[in-house]
Specification:
The structure holds two protein chains of two kinds. By secondary structure, chain A is α+β, with helices and mostly antiparallel strands. Chain A folds into four domains: 2-216, Heat Shock Protein 90, CATH 3.30.565; 234-302, Helicase, Ruva Protein, domain 3 (Orthogonal Bundle), CATH 1.10.8; 311-453, 2-Layer Sandwich (Ribosomal Protein S5, domain 2); 461-504, no CATH class. Chain A is built from 14 helices and 14 strands. In chain A, the strands form two sheets. An eight-stranded mixed β-sheet of chain A has the order 5-4-3-6-2-1-7-8. In chain A, strands 9, 10, 11, 12, 13 and 14 form a six-stranded mixed β-sheet that branches. Chain B is α/β, with parallel strands linked by helices. Chain B folds into two domains: 3-44 and 61-142, Arc Repressor Mutant, subunit A (Orthogonal Bundle), CATH 1.10.10; 148-361, Dna Topoisomerase Vi A Subunit, Chain: A, domain 2 (3-Layer(aba) Sandwich), CATH 3.40.1360.10. The longest helix of chain B has 31 residues, at 3-33. The chains are: A alpha+beta, B alpha/beta. The interface between A and B is medium-sized, with 21 and 26 residues.
C-alpha cells in the first residue's frame, strides 16, 4: 500500500528523511533498533524452516569519533532459511522489498527494519554492508553493497561465490553504524532477555563492544506451529486493498471474486452478501466505479453474517512454551499461563496469551514487573500507555489476595496479523475494547490460579506451624504430667502427633 | 486457742494441696497414655458465671464449665503452662519453699516455657487456682507484700529454719510484714480483744505511736490500700481463730468503702476461692455521715467517684441499709474526706475522740 503511495520519491529517500518512524531517532535508539530489527529477521528466517534459531550477534568498536557517539561494527549470524542469491541485493539494498506483505503473523512490520538499519549505517558511516548467505546448497554468496538512496536500488560493490563444503545454511549481515552503546546497553540486554522469554527454543548469543558475552540458551527444541497465509477477512479491508484486488483479479463476476479473494466467504455467504448489498452476482468487478468500491467496502463491514476469521494465520506461542520461556528467564516459584481463544477486532484475528509468575528470583520492588510482547517481540518502551498496563491497574487485586509488594511478574503476549499499535513507534498497544477484554479475562484467569497457589501455600504453612506448635508443647505436657504424677516413663505422644498431621489438612 | 490443732490443720492442708496437684498430673498422664489429647475442665470465670451468694456472703462461680483442650491450637500453650505451673507449685509446696508471682514468671523461662508477660503468668496461676479450688498461697505462691500487722500476738513459725521460733508482733514498731512466713505461722497467744484494719500507712504509724494497741487492746493491720489476698486470709484467721471482732477504717470515699467491702465479702476476681472473706468484719469509718458530723475538711467528688457510687449502689454486697445510707449521703453531699482529715483537730484527736466513739457506735 505504502509502496504505491510513495512511488514518486524513492522509498529509501523517504525513510532516510523520516527515520524516526522506524525507531532510529537518536544514537541510543538507533543502535538498539538495529540490533532488534536484525535479530527479528533472523528469528523469522529460522522459524520459517521450523528450525530452532541459533543467533549470534557481535557489536564491536570500529573507531572512536567522539566521547558519546561511537562507530560500531554490527555482525549478526543466523541459521535461517538463507536468501536465494538473486534476491540478496534487493533484500538488503532496496527498501520495501521483501516477503512480508501478506496477511499472516510476522515479526517484521514494515519489511524495512533490516534495510533501515543498513541504510542508517550507511548514512552515518558511509561504509558498505556485507551480506553472506546460503540456502544450504552447494554455494555461499557474499555481497558487498550500498543503497543508492535516490533511486532506491542496491549498488553491488563486490560479489564472491564460495564453495559450501559443509552445507552451511543461514545469513550473515555485517555493517558499520553510529550509536551510543553505553546508553543503549540496558535496553539491548533487556531486549535479549525478553526475546529469550518468548522464544525459548532459540539460542541467543550477544558479544558486546567490551567483549562481554551474554548467552541465552534454549530450553526446548519445540517450536510453535508456523502461521498459515490467509486471504483478507472482509471486515478488515479498506478501499486501497479492494482496488488492488480488483486490479489483479482474473475473476469476471462478483460472486467468484468474493469467494476467491476473501477469507470466510463461500458460495452461500457470497450470495447472501450480494443480496444484502444489492449487487448483482454477475457484475464484473473490474467495472465497479470508484463510488461502488467505496460502497462495497462499507457493505462488507456492515454485513453481520461473516464468520470471524479463523486463527490458523496466527502463531501463538502456546501455554507450554510461554511457561518454559518465562520459567527459564525469571526462575519463579510459581507460574500460571493461559491462552485465550482467538478473537477479532476490526476483522483482524488475534490471540492473547497471559502469564503470571510469582516468587523465586523475581524481585520485590513495590510494583509488578510487566512484560509485553506482540508477535513474539518484546515491547520495551511506553509501558504506561499500553492497554495491558491499563488493565492491570484497573484490576481489583485484593480479590486475588495479591498486593503490590509481592514479587510478581506479568507477561502479555498478543499475536495478530495486525497488531493494534497506537503509534507509528510500535511500542505500545492501543486500548481497543476487544483487546482489552481479552487481556482482562486472561489476566483474571491467571490471577485466580495464583490466588489458589497462594491460598494453598498459606494452608501448608499454617499446617506446618500447627504441627510445630503441637510438636513443641505435647512432649512438654507429657514430661511435666509424668513428673507431677510421679510416674517413671513419659506417655507416648507419637499417636497424637500423627493425628495432628491428618486433621491439619 | 489450740496450737496443736492449728498445726495439724496446716499439715493436713499441705498434704491435700500436694495430693490435688499430683492428681491433676495423673489425670493428664492417663489421658495421654490412653491416646487422647488431654483436657482439663474448670468452672468458667467469665462475668456471666460469677454471682453473689447471700448465704456465704461472697461472690461465687456458677455451674458453667470451660474445657482447656490440647487439641485446640489456642489452648495448648496455656495448657502446657498450667501443667508446668502445677509441677512448679508441687516442688515449692513439698520443699516448703515459697515464691512470688514474679519468680514464677522468670522460673518458667528455664523450661523454655516463657510467659509473654507477668499478666499471662498471673492468669495461668489463677487458672490453676480455679482447677484445684485452692488459692495460690496454698501452693506457696505469694504476691509482693506490702501490708503489715502490729500488736500483742505471739506467733510460732512453721517455715523451714524457723520452726518452733516465736515472735511477738509488738517487737518491731513498723509492724511485721504479712508475708509467707507470717501467714503460715501458728497463733500462740494474745491479749487483744479486737482487730483494727487501717487503709493507710501514715495512720497505721500514728496508731502505733499513740499506743492504740494498748489503749484499745487491739491488733493493728495495715492493708496498704486494697488488701492483698494473703492479708485478707490473715484477717479471716485472726477473726476465726482468735474469735475477736474486726473493725475497718478507710478513707471516706467510694474506694475506701470498697476496701472494707472486699475484706468483708471478697471480690469478683476471687470468686473461685473461699476463705478469703471475713463476713463479720465491720466498716467503722470514715463514713459519709462522719464527714457531716465531724465537719471534716473535704474534696468534692469527681466524676469517677460518682460513677463508682452508682455502681456500688446496685452491687448485691451493698444491699445492707447502712451501706445504702452511706452511698446516698455521699451522693447527697458530693464530698469525700481522707483519714488524715482529722488532723485539723490536732494529731491525737482521731485516737482520743473519733476512734473510741466509732468503736462504740459500730460494736
Amino acid at each position: 500500500m505504502a509502496r504505491t503511495t510513495f512511488e514518486e520519491i524513492s522509498a529509501a529517500d523517504f525513510f532516510y528523511r523520516n527515520r524516526d518512524i522506524a525507531g532510529f531517532t537518536n544514537p541510543t535508539r538507533a543502535i538498539f533498533a538495529a540490533v532488534r530489527e536484525l535479530v527479528e529477521n533472523s528469528l523469522d528466517a529460522a522459524e520459517s524452516l521450523k528450525v530452532p534459531p541459533d543467533i549470534y550477534v557481535r557489536l564491536s568498536y570500529a573507531n572512536e569519533t567522539d566521547k558519546e557517539t561511537n562507530v560500531f561494527r554490527l555482525m549478526i549470524k543466523d541459521n535461517g532459511i538463507g536468501v536465494p542469491p538473486r534476491h540478496i541485493p534487493s533484500a538488503f539494498g532496496q527498501v520495501l522489498y521483501g516477503s512480508k506483505y501478506k496477511p499472516k503473523q510476522q515479526r517484521g512490520t514494515f519489511g524495512l527494519g533490516g534495510k533501515m538499519a543498513i541504510l542508517y549505517g550507511q548514512i552515518t558511516t558511509h561504509q558498505p554492508a556485507r551480506i553472506i548467505s546460503s540456502t544450504g546448497m552447494s554455494k555461499i554468496y557474499s555481497y558487498k553493497l550500498r543503497i543508492d538512496i535516490q533511486r532506491n536500488r542496491p549498488l553491488i560493490l563486490d560479489r564472491k561465490v564460495l564453495i559450501n563444503k559443509e552445507r552451511w545454511r543461514g545469513t550473515i549481515v555485517e555493517f558499520s553504524l553510529e550509536g551510543d552503546y553505553s546508553r543503549a546497553m540496558p535496553k539491548i540486554l533487556e531486549y535479549f532477555k525478553q526475546t529469550a522469554m518468548v522464544n525459548p527454543y532459540a539460542n541467543l548469543t550477544f558479544v558486546d563492544p567490551k567483549g562481554r558475552l551474554y548467552k541465552f540458551a534454549r530450553a526446548t527444541e519445540e517450536m510453535p506451529d508456523p502461521p498459515k497465509e490467509t486471504l483478507p477477512h472482509p471486515y478488515g479491508v479498506d478501499v486501497e486493498l479492494l482496488q488492488r484486488l480488483i486490479h489483479v483479479t482474473t475473476f469476471r463476476n462478483m460472486s467468484d471474486f468474493l469467494k476467491n479473494h476473501f477469507h470466510r466467504i463461500g458460495e452461500i455467504t457470497a450470495r447472501k452478501f450480494l443480496e444484502f448489498s444489492n449487487i448483482s452476482p454477475s457484475k464484473n468487478p473490474k467495472r465497479l466505479s470508484h463510488e461502488e468500491v467505496v460502497r462495497l467496502m462499507r457493505m462488507l463491514k456492515e454485513f453481520r453474517e461473516f464468520l470471524p476469521p479463523n486463527a490458523s494465520c496466527l502463531s501463538p506461542l502456546g501455554e507450554k512454551l510461554l511457561k518454559t520461556g518465562i520459567s527459564k528467564e525469571l526462575e519463579p516459584e510459581f507460574i500460571a499461563v493461559h491462552q485465550r481463544r482467538p478473537s477479532t477486532y476490526a476483522g483482524h484475528p488475534f490471540i492473547v496469551e497471559m502469564a503470571i509468575a510469582y516468587g523465586g528470583e523475581i524481585p520485590r520492588k513495590g510494583s509488578f514487573l510487566i512484560y509485553r510482547f506482540a508477535n513474539r517481540i518484546p515491547l520495551l518502551y511506553d509501558e504506561a500507555s499500553d492497554v495491558s498496563t491499563i488493565v492491570m491497574n484497573s484490576m481489583n487485586w485484593r480479590r486475588y489476595k495479591v498486593t503490590p509488594d509481592m514479587p510478581i511478574a506479568i507477561a502479555t503476549h498478543i499475536c495478530s496479523t495486525k497488531i493494534p499499535y497506537k503509534t507509528v513507534g510500535k511500542e505500545f498497544i492501543a486500548d481497543r475494547p476487544e483487546v482489552r477484554r481479552e487481556i482482562a479475562n486472561g489476566l483474571r484467569e491467571v490471577a485466580r490460579r495464583l490466588q489458589r497457589f497462594l491460598t494453598r501455600r498459606e494452608h501448608v504453612s499454617r499446617d506446618r506451624k500447627r504441627l510445630d506448635i503441637f510438636s513443641k508443647y505435647l512432649p512438654k505436657i507429657a514430661e511435666f504430667s509424668t513428673q507431677l504424677a510421679g510416674k517413671e516413663k513419659n506417655p507416648d505422644i507419637k499417636k497424637l502427633l500423627r493425628s495432628v498431621k491428618r486433621f491439619g489438612t | 486457742m489450740e496450737r496443736s490443732k492449728h498445726k495439724s490443720i496446716m499439715i493436713e492442708r499441705k498434704k491435700e494441696v500436694i495430693a490435688s496437684l499430683e492428681n491433676l498430673g495423673l489425670q493428664i498422664y492417663e489421658q495421654i497414655d490412653d491416646g487422647y489429647f488431654p483436657s482439663i475442665e474448670m468452672p468458667s470465670r467469665s462475668t456471666e458465671n460469677i454471682r453473689y451468694d447471700p448465704q456465704v456472703r461472697q461472690y461465687i462461680l456458677g455451674d458453667r464449665k470451660v474445657r482447656r483442650h490440647t487439641r485446640n491450637i489456642r489452648h495448648i500453650r496455656p495448657f502446657t503452662q498450667l501443667v508446668w505451673t502445677a509441677l512448679f507449685s508441687r516442688e515449692l509446696t513439698s520443699h516448703r519453699k515459697t515464691s512470688t508471682l514474679r519468680d514464677v514468671y522468670y522460673s518458667a523461662q528455664a523450661y523454655e516455657m516463657k510467659f509473654t508477660d507477668q499478666q499471662e503468668s498471673n492468669n495461668i496461676i489463677t487458672d490453676l487456682e480455679t482447677v484445684l479450688g485452692l488459692s495460690r498461697e496454698d501452693f506457696n505462691i505469694f504476691p509482693e507484700e506490702r501490708s503489715a500487722v502490729f500488736g500483742d500476738l505471739t506467733i510460732e513459725y512453721t517455715v523451714p529454719g524457723y520452726e518452733g521460733k516465736t515472735l511477738n508482733l509488738t517487737s518491731h514498731p513498723d509492724g511485721v510484714m504479712i508475708g509467707p512466713a507470717l501467714t503460715s505461722s501458728e497463733f500462740v497467744s494474745t491479749t487483744a480483744d479486737k482487730v483494727i484494719a487501717i487503709e493507710k500507712g501514715g495512720l497505721f504509724t500514728r496508731f502505733v505511736e499513740e499506743n492504740v494497741h494498748k489503749k484499745f487492746n487491739s491488733l493493728l493491720v495495715l492493708t496498704a490500700g486494697q488488701a492483698p489476698r494473703a492479708t485478707r486470709h490473715f484477717i479471716r484467721r485472726l477473726s476465726r481463730e482468735l474469735d475477736i471482732p474486726v473493725y475497718i477504717f478507710t478513707d471516706g470515699d467510694p474506694w475506701g468503702m470498697h476496701i472494707a467491702m472486699v475484706i468483708i465479702s471478697g471480690s469478683a476476681n476471687a470468686a473461685h476461692l473461699r476463705e478469703l472473706t471475713t463476713p463479720d468484719a465491720i466498716w467503722s469509718g470514715v463514713w459519709a455521715t462522719d464527714i457531716v458530723d465531724y465537719k471534716l475538711p473535704t474534696d468534692p467528688l469527681d466524676e469517677v467517684d460518682v460513677k463508682r457510687l452508682y455502681e456500688l449502689q446496685r452491687d448485691p454486697r451493698y444491699k445492707d441499709p447502712l451501706w445504702q445510707r452511706e452511698i446516698k449521703t455521699f451522693l447527697k453531699i458530693r464530698k469525700k474526706a481522707e483519714q488524715e482529715a482529722f488532723s485539723r483537730y490536732g494529731l491525737t484527736y482521731i485516737v482520743d475522740e473519733y476512734l473510741p466513739t466509732k468503736l462504740e457506735e459500730t460494736k
